Amino acid sequence: MEPTEDSNNYKYGVFYYNKDDSRIIVPKRIKYMGWTVNFAHPLSYLIIGGLLAVVIVAWIVAPQK
Fold it and tell me: Which residue of 5, 18, 44, 61 has the lowest C-beta tally within 10 Å?
């Protein structure tokens, strides 16, 4: 069984968390649904933080009407 298919590797049934999986970005349980982040990997928080920073900066810099 693929580690991403094991329900024990998900916190709250949503967040993939597997310390034994060295991948940062992994396919979701249902393959055609896309990809998710392995929150057990330290770099995952940098990725999420970077994405949030881009969104916040874009929101601040965007012209106001």
Answer: 61
